[in-house]
Amino acid sequence: MRFLFSNIRLRHLAVFILLISSHVSNAQNKEAVKFLVDNENGYFEILLDDTLLIKRYKDSLTVGQHKAQVWSYGYDVKEVEFNVEPGKTTEVYVKLDRSAAFGAYESSYAAYRVKFHKAVTIPISTSLALSLTSGAFMINAYNLRKTVLVDINNYSQTTIPDEIALIKNRVEENNRKYNISRTGFYIAGGLALAGIGTSIYTALKFKRSNPVPVYSKQSPFSDKMSLQFTGTGFVFQIKIG
Amino acid sequence: MKNHNLISVLFLMILLSSCLKKIEGTDNLTTNIFDVDYTGDAWFLIDDIYTYYTTFGQLKVRVEAVIPNANMPVLSPNLIYVNCHVNDEPEVIFYTYKNTKGDYPFYFDLMPETTNEYCLEAGIYLQDQDTTINRFTICGSL
Fold it and tell me: Where are the domains of chain B?
């Protein structure tokens, strides 16, 4: 039997040796057990017989009665008992129930998001839209200004009365559009500036008075020893003190 | 950092505001003498008024005028048509060439009047439209 110890974190080597020896002594009476954990996030931790923490759906356990506590992020710990029979794969179905704390967290986070959108997203989006509008007015005004100046220059050059009349009409029309565009630029630009100021103010105010709701992902089994299989071996972890 | 950004935006806005000011001169497009709405001063000058004898010994008065190059559009033509007359003489259409200075000289001959005052009325003649625009009258004495 060959083990590949690729990543072992031990604080007390003695405990590890005791555990290995315990597993070796019972190796011949083991049967496969499959845990079918019903939850939404796909992650779970199983504490077997108050001793060993596993994070996989399949394991080999000694024949006989066992107890497991199953937990996942956002769910209450569920305790199940099952019997491992010789010569048979045991399937343990566990449906996890959402924890009340997680429900409260979800509600408070949803309320936080609504407040966030009102205080940050909407002002910033409005400011952005006004800035883009202002920019569009500005580009249009610049183009029209250029056209008008070119036409004014052309007016003083030509000697053809019909062309003069056309130039004057163009100047009048483009100058009218130019004035509309620059007025639009000033209004939209002013509103954009006001919007940026408001956005900064509301964002800072929101940040000060609305801390982000947090939900602890801390496992209730974090103080237990665990066994995790990786692609190159396994990790055995134990925390003492 | 945020304050610096805000100041930059404000500075940019002020800079752009100065570039997008009102365009001057759009209401004053009446300075081209070929514009039917020309509102400037007389576009020609009386250069000289004098008497002379023709080859047939006849006494005549010549009113010499000039269109200064400064009063012409930038792309000035080689010749322009002028419709003019002096006092009660009938109108005559002249064409005048640009001289080396860029001016357009023209003159009007007539018999001496009892008074010494000679008033030259001239306008720009538009061949295509067979019409005369921007008439002005300038008087002078011998």
Answer: 45-141
